[in-house]
Description:
In chain A, about 40% of the residues lie in helices and about 10% in strands. Chain A is α/β, with parallel strands linked by helices. Chain C has twelve helices and 14 strands. Bound molecules: thiamine diphosphate (2 copies) and magnesium ion (2 copies).
Amino acid sequence: MTTTEPLQVIQADGGVNGYDPQMPESELLHCYRAMLQVRAFDAICLKLQRAGRIGFSIPNEGIEATQVGAASALRKSDWIFPSYRDFGMALYHGVAPLEMMHNMFGNARDGAKGRQMPVHFSFVEPIRFVSISSPIGTHIPQAVGVAHAARLRGEDTVVLASFGDGGTSSLGFHSGLNFAGVWRSPVVFLCQNNGWAISCPTEEQTASDGFAIKGEAYGIPGVVVDGNDLLAVRKVTLAAVERARAGGGPTLIEAKTFRMGGHSTSDDPKRYVPAEQFEHWKKRDPIPRFEKFLQAAGLLDAAKAVAMNAEVTEEIAVAARAAEQVGPPALETIFSDVYAALPAHIRKQGEQAFDLAARRGEARSGDGTFPL
Amino acid sequence: MTTTEPLQVIQADGGVNGYDPQMPESELLHCYRAMLQVRAFDAICLKLQRAGRIGFSIPNEGIEATQVGAASALRKSDWIFPSYRDFGMALYHGVAPLEMMHNMFGNARDGAKGRQMPVHFSFVEPIRFVSISSPIGTHIPQAVGVAHAARLRGEDTVVLASFGDGGTSSLGFHSGLNFAGVWRSPVVFLCQNNGWAISCPTEEQTASDGFAIKGEAYGIPGVVVDGNDLLAVRKVTLAAVERARAGGGPTLIEAKTFRMGGHSTSDDPKRYVPAEQFEHWKKRDPIPRFEKFLQAAGLLDAAKAVAMNAEVTEEIAVAARAAEQVGPPALETIFSDVYAALPAHIRKQGEQAFDLAARRGEARSGDGTFPL
Amino acid sequence: MATLTLLQAINDGLRTAMRDDPSVLVFGEDVGKKGGVFLATENLQKEFGAKRCFDTPLSEDGIVGAAIGMAMNGLKPVAEIQFQDFIFPAFDQIVSEAAKLRYRSGGQYTAPLVIRTPYGGGIRGGLYHSQSGEAYFCHTPGLKVVVPSTPHDAKGLLLASIADPDPVLFLEPKALYRSVKGEVPEGSYRVELSTLREARAGKDVTVFCYGAMVPVSLKAAEESLASGIDVRVVDLRTLLPLDEEGVLEHARSTGRVVVVHEAPRFCGFGAEISALIAEHAIEYMEAPVVRVTGFDTPFPNTLEHHYLPDHRRVLDAIERVAHF
Amino acid sequence: MATLTLLQAINDGLRTAMRDDPSVLVFGEDVGKKGGVFLATENLQKEFGAKRCFDTPLSEDGIVGAAIGMAMNGLKPVAEIQFQDFIFPAFDQIVSEAAKLRYRSGGQYTAPLVIRTPYGGGIRGGLYHSQSGEAYFCHTPGLKVVVPSTPHDAKGLLLASIADPDPVLFLEPKALYRSVKGEVPEGSYRVELSTLREARAGKDVTVFCYGAMVPVSLKAAEESLASGIDVRVVDLRTLLPLDEEGVLEHARSTGRVVVVHEAPRFCGFGAEISALIAEHAIEYMEAPVVRVTGFDTPFPNTLEHHYLPDHRRVLDAIERVAHF
Ligand SMILES: Cc1ncc(C[n+]2csc(CCOP(=O)(O)OP(=O)(O)O)c2C)c(N)n1
Ligand SMILES: Cc1ncc(C[n+]2csc(CCOP(=O)(O)OP(=O)(O)O)c2C)c(N)n1
Ligand SMILES: [Mg+2]
Ligand SMILES: [Mg+2]
């Protein structure tokens, strides 16, 4: 029931041996563009972080094909429960880079109201990209709950839950996959095996023979795919999504890929990742690989690629500049959204905080009275 | 790496096809005796509970061969992390029924000082039978920790961790097996698949193809055995123990068996277990099955069986009467053993409790002053 | 109006909610065919089918995690945790997730679920079938914590909890499941959350309590009449968000306060009541604020009657603050 | 004596313990080659090898569960939880198991382990890299909870915790990791658990605090001199078991008390201090017992400087109780 050889579609020369990705050309280019966006977003965030203008970011270099390929298998009515290293899925589905930059700066326009660390996005439109949580694995049984609810209501929604190799050791992985197996929930579990959980290599994470096989413990088929091959990732995800939508139950996908950067902008991977690994995977960069396919298919040439890259980079740079101009969230955002309605004790604490800020001259115009 | 057909040794006619259990005759009879003890202990506890003389008990009928067969594979220097449905392991290793009865009555001689519910035994002699905890699964990573410590010290101790089919859904199962796989710890995991977790059948517990296969998720070999066949259980456990002792790492054993009684004396299984299941398993009772083997091997006859049964029943009945005579633990046992030394705030609470008991005339002689 | 036990009132509350709203689901370990180990969910599977009342695998983390997802996606999950002692595997889901989802998503996602669980001593359950863990949860902004003490409130608070837009931990005092009876209206009604109940009027001393300590406190109040002390008993009912102003008004009006709970004293819920008073009503106090609680030890088995506060311990405290 | 940061003092403490006692092990996520995400375990794997300092899978439940087993079997595990916010998957192992093992086994089995974890705000970590969860643990009999605030104490309390026969949760104020420096003796020494430290003498008001709130309180104390208020600052250091008598003596001697912590107020640790005073020293109080705490909300990110108590908020409270 479990595959062990990673599925590949795109060959060294960009050929696909006649495989039909079942996507219009514009879609294929859209995937390419989304990968470029991820990389540009990353690069700009790294610079912003190094310049001390944002506090933190999460590099995605090397993982773009997994994110975008998997996202491309979903409809807008489906749900994504992402990890913090998944925002290519949001970009693919059309979340504006500006929305994301608001989060990176934790500013007043951030959907999460500046409450979360950067990269902890939450979107409901154009697809449900569920509020990212730092604790690893907690989102997995939640994804199953969403899927089960959809099924009980007779909807054909599919839920994608994404996590890392490290995430498979979490409680949520165990309970989530077990419940999904018993309930035959319409969920696709995407394990992004990028070789490392911060500084811990997979052999410190588990003695299992890869990650796809972990599905056996839950009666869930496991599929291994080359995570740097966008079409392969799309293919297995689409199959899993269709199976789920048709009532066939969950699938566990292991996408074998590699984190070319550090765990985060606070991390120096050279301290622990052997240099050979970077060299090995550098040659397997998912973006040039997909470029080759597009070129072989006659959809892209060098000039178009350069232009598209320049365009997305500019869009993101503009977004960063715009987001940086937006001020911090209002003081009352500390106190709202704890509950649907504001309880008296929190209101009182808010009033005191506002008083103090006013005395200190830190209250901003418009904050005149505590508004909640 | 995982077996799927349950290993059996004892045939319908009591023959073993030339299999050598590698046990002296006295050992084989000792196993038989231990199974009789479990059943007698159970029967007496059920009566005591129905008469309101103890509060609670856990039936083991049907599981005796799993408990005793597995225990017989261990040395006295090994450790057992039992579930609450495992006390045959303690009896096999020579824990006196009287010690256990003290616990059933929660009296002053109970090793756990009357703090735990009945059946939550704790023994350090003659084998480490680790204090049973009610929360399911928490003991599994602890067992791995004990094993890892032994290995780090270069000792050849093996640890047996036992749990039910329901226990495989717990957090501790996931973390424990995963750590044991990575550390190649000398642990034997014994999953007693008795078909039910209270009222939940295994198909509500997991969609996996049995429980042994769950080892795959952790790089741990899984073995399935007929849990009602003492020699088969002993055989697979011995192999797993020897492998662990030799540094070969952990094994997951699934013993297929059946809980002939309720979950506990508070439970009526007829409310949810289909009658056919009782009938099916009744015919597979592990005690007559082992009797047949002993008879075929010329080690037992009907008279000897009756005598032995009478003897163990009498021993346990005597133990019950003796334990019932012992009074409750002293008041100060509420306050001791929270920490190695008694902190001031707990001492003060103890003093107040003693004052109150004294004023009520509830303090017992010898309790004259709060002694801690 | 029927006269029901607290357990029957909860069962009735669940049934009422399920009848009124098809999106209400009940699940947990053994809640289906068996109807729960205490029978709180008896006959629900029979009436509403296995799609609306069902057993789960033995994983509290999964139960609460899945409930959060269902709640996010428009259902009204009412999850049962078999004993409060076994809720800790779900602690992360409750404290890190359910309680923080609305906040961290800027209100984009919410998790209006109810977690029901029996808590407290009185059944000779020892360390792991007797605990009162309310303080662990009351320190968690975003969560609501409700504890009924009468059949009427049990049903009305449960229905209010199910209707509530926030995650609610509903703690059921198992000692009262079958030992208290009372009139319970038929059909749907709600007891508003975050409101106190004056269980007994009195002017000399206020006893704050909840759950199984309410009857204990009432008995102590009755007995203190003999010493001429007129005791008010206030059932807190909702511990979080607490009606702090209500608590302070009662405290100020009698100037003498006793707080009673089963849980260990240190950092227990009672500390918050004392602290509120020490901060906002100390000038009205004519006596120390005395806590009567479980001991700062795990919960014992054989000697649980010494561990659990009884009316005599409460009475001692009442007399101490009355005669200070 | 070397001058070390608090982080270096902890690293030094671990090294000292590992040198002195071969049964001491250090493990957790990323503690090996990387030396921990804050570098508290830097170079330990290099010096002591991968058998004594090693990485684990990403499972706090497994880390603590295995640590309990190792402790039962004669080793001295010092487990790291990467952030206190991520300790909740291990809550069951800590609260149900480590804390209760000695009691439930009648002393036959014990779990003398140490769990180190960075806690608190100040690094723009948002909801999940900033929390102060001490109250969750202080309500747990059987556990010890220690919080250092100076490099000297960090090392001495850590060594005492490792030597302790009971399970200890060692909370490290990450905001102080690199921001405070101090003299730290070389080699082994212990700061006795359950002892308070008068961080500043004063006779008008006592401020009780711990961890990162100690320097904040000291600064407020300095500034209140300007208004002629002489403030005593008491660093609690061990929250459980707390030196209750010591707390009460300080409270009685100044008659005015402020309690400061980062964690949310409701059912926070400060409530216990207030409650102790309300029960045992109310007649000495000349003012309300005022708590200065984090708000009863999750921990925000951009606005964390408003959330975290600073010296000005403490100063406000000092003035309020001084002039009551
Ligand atoms: C419960 C929990 N423990 C620890 C952490 C700290 N942490 C953040 S990311 C991470 C590694 C995750 O590795 P993996 O799942 O492989 O994802 P990747 O970063 O490689 O994408 C750790 C340990 C956490 N966020 N949550
Ligand atoms: C964490 C936890 N959740 C729930 C329970 C209540 N409970 C006690 S035994 C049990 C069923 C266990 O079934 P299984 O593991 O198959 O063991 P068996 O009783 O069949 O031997 C449950 C749900 C518990 N003890 N711990
Ligand atoms: Mg990874
Ligand atoms: Mg079972």
